[in-house]
Amino acid sequence: MIRYFVEDVEFQVPFPQKTRRWLNTVALAEGFQIAELNYIFCSDEYLHKINVEYLEHDTYTDIITFDNSEEEKIISGDIFVSVERVEDNARSLNVIFQDELARVMVHGVLHLAGYLDETDEEEENMRRLESHYLLTRI
Fold it and tell me: Binding site membership: which residues?
């Protein structure tokens, strides 16, 4: 089950049902099943506070993913997304907001499927997977 929540911003996920189907398809393609996945869309400041409090990073970011899974191959987690950061990134990358939002959303699913992006090689692989799955959007 994929659910969407909003904290301190006005926001609606574009095409929420299609997005749920797409993200479930991505998880299945990676050998996972989504049990419970919560997307919490929020402001830069809201996500910054989470970044400082839980990760001890005093930086702004577009996404923070918390893995709540207790079983192998089952995705359960909370994904916080800064709508403001996604908007800024879309502008700076010269892409439409919906495409950047989809990239960030699938990025979180890929983290929950075990992919990291801490090294240059891992980051390159993550970007390749994001691009691949963006092409599969319904």
Answer: 107, 111, 117
Domain extents for the chain? Answer: 2-134
Residue 117 burial (10 A CB sphere; 0-12, 13-18, 19+) = middle
Q: Dihedrals φ, ψ of 80, to 5°?
A: -95, 130
**Burial degree of 1 (CB within 10 A; 0-12, 13-18, 19+):** exposed
In the CATH scheme, what is the homologous superfamily, with its name and number, of domain 2-134? Metalloproteases ("zincins"), catalytic domain (3.40.390.30)
pLDDT given for residue 87 in this prediction: 98
Positions at the binding site for Zn(2+): 107, 111, 117
Q: Please write the tens of the pLDDT for every residue from 4-59.
A: 999 999 999 999 999 999 999 999 999 999 999 999 999 999 999 999 999 999 99
Cα 105 to the center of its chain, rounded Å: 3
pLDDT at position 138, please? 65
